[in-house]
Specification:
About 35% of the residues lie in helices and about 20% in strands. The protein is of the alpha/beta class and about 475 residues long. Helix 4 packs across helix 5, helix 11 packs across helix 18 and helix 13 packs across helix 14. The protein binds glutamine.
Length: about 475
């Protein structure tokens, strides 16, 4: 998945590399999802091909219908074995996309195979707003419903994305032309705060409609905690704002850093302050212009990434944050570059680098470990998913997490090189988190700096609006010049 096209790669506890939707789901429902929550056509096709090779189709011709569609249904039905009550299957894309045809066909069959009251189709559409005539257009929705019906699916509920309130006349029109009850036309209006959307949908009666369709009794949701959270967010004084720069290379598409951005907002909620985030292109940062480009920010984040592009700009950024005592958080590649920067400029190892970026560097302060090379030969190359990390007593990390052992998610191939551990620590780059066996360095930090911390894991993957990630909370707190 290319971050330019798909946005960030989200990683679950059990190591699935998924698209960013799963990150939103986790942030909204505060549950850890798993491999089973993400189905790609790649997984479906490879499973069908493997089955064919094993002879499981008994020599039959393998076709999209029924083999691919059966495989998709098996994934959905797979949850029947668990204690799951309701399976929500979200299908991406647009009705009519060639990519989606087999999936639409599979869910049509699900509707036929299960009891009618056990299956519900919700169609999410866009009502374009024409500002010149101040009107909403229902035509595209009518057309996509028609298209769905031609595939044999009748939507029960329409969730309509809109910029303005949907007038009653349009709700009636949608109900009539799309063959849904008027109460099942649900408005999903652009909200002032993303996290207020579930409350808005509740007010619109989405859950009521779902429960009616699925014949579920008595639903009495208690949203009071969430409501309080939204109220607190809305009450944050607009004047009270900190500015934070994310210095990375995928700056053209905000979705590439969506979890990092959301984590900064969550940390803002926790500190009762607005956070304004700018994406700054690391390729454009040089030794000469780093100060001009970054002096306006209260804090700097250097996020994860792969490959050489924009690397020297990241190193200049970290040097600037370290020397000028600007609050700094490095994540994954950002942590690795913090180690490289420190080795080059404090230990004076001018050619220090990560082996990923300079294969033959004489000072590979970041490298692939021997054990890892063995795994590499077998094909599995990345450390993926949640791993435990033990925190050093009284360190900044320990203070932030208020515990001695944590679990955070990883997605990387390279590691801190232990040969440099002693020298780096003696010079002031302290290790405050390692794997339980002490072999893998997970967090580094600098004392006598308002806030300089970097982790090999991705703390943003576990941050939630009502459970912000400690490393981000500390960063925003440091912007307010409060002691962390
Ligand atoms: N490219 C680095 C590695 O593979 C860092 C990866 C990341 O930032 N997610 O180790």
């Amino acid at each position: 998945m290319n971050p330019y096209e798909h946005g960030e790669v989200f990683v679950t506890d059990d190591g699935a590399e998924t698209d960013l939707d799963l990150g939103h789901y986790e942030r909204f429902i505060n549950e850890n999802l798993t491999q089973n929550s993400s189905i790609t056509m790649g997984k479906i096709y490879s499973s069908v091909i493997e089955k064919e090779r094993r002879g499981e189709y008994l020599g039959k011709t393998v076709q999209v219908i029924p083999h691919i569609t059966n495989e998709i249904k098996e994934k959905i039905y797979g949850f029947e074995e668990t204690d799951t009550d309701i399976v929500i299957t979200e299908i991406g894309g647009t009705v009519g996309d060639i990519e989606g045809l087999s999936i639409i066909e599979a869910i049509r069959q699900v509707g036929l195979e299960k009891n009618p009251e056990d299956v519900l189709y919700i169609h999410v559409t866009l009502l374009p707003y024409i500002s010149g005539s101040n009107e909403l257009k229902s035509k595209p929705t009518q057309h996509s419903v028609k298209e769905l019906q031609s595939f044999g699916i009748k939507p029960d509920i329409l969730v309509c994305r809109t910029e303005i309130d949907i007038p009653d006349s349009i709700r009636e029109k949608l109900a009539l032309f799309c063959n849904v009850r008027k109460s099942s036309v649900i408005q999903n209006k652009t909200a002032d705060c993303l996290y207020a959307v579930p409350l808005m949908l509740e007010e619109e009666g989405l859950a009521r409609e779902v429960c009616n369709h699925l014949k579920l009794e008595k639903y009495i949701p208690d949203n009071s905690k969430w409501e309080n959270m939204i109220e607190n967010i809305r009450n944050i004084n607009k004047e009270n704002t900190v500015k934070i720069a994310i210095v990375g290379k995928y700056t053209k598409l905000e979705d590439s850093y969506i979890s990092v951005i959301e984590s900064l907002y969550h940390a803002g909620f926790a500190n009762n302050v607005n956070v304004k985030v700018d994406l700054v292109d690391s390729e454009k940062i040089t030794k000469e212009n780093v100060k001009d480009r970054l002096y306006i920010y209260d804090a700097i984040v250097v996020p994860g990434g792969f490959g050489n592009r924009g690397i020297e700009g990241k190193i200049q950024t970290i040097k600037y944050a370290r020397e000028n005592k600007i609050p700094f958080l490095g994540i994954c590649l950002g942590m690795q570059m913090a180690v490289v920067e420190f080795a080059r400029n404090v230990l004076n190892l001018k050619d220090a680098n990560s082996a990923e970026l300079e294969k033959n560097t004489k000072n590979p302060v970041i490298h692939i470990m021997e054990e890892q090379k063995e795994i590499d030969k077998k094909g599995g190359t990345m450390r993926l998913g949640a791993y435990p990390c033990v925190l050093k007593e009284k360190s900044l990390a320990n203070k932030l997490y208020v515990k001695s052992e944590i679990s955070e998610r990883h997605r990387h191939r390279y590691e801190y090189n232990n040969d440099y551990r002693q020298k780096l620590e003696e010079a002031g780059l302290k290790i405050s988190g390692t794997s339980p066996d002490g072999l893998l360095v997970e967090i580094v930090e600098i004392e006598n700096h308002p806030y300089f911390i970097a982790s090999q894991f991705h703390p943003e993957l576990k941050s939630r609006p009502n459970k912000p990630a400690p490393l981000f909370v500390g960063l925003v707190k440091a912007c307010l010049k409060k002691e962390v």
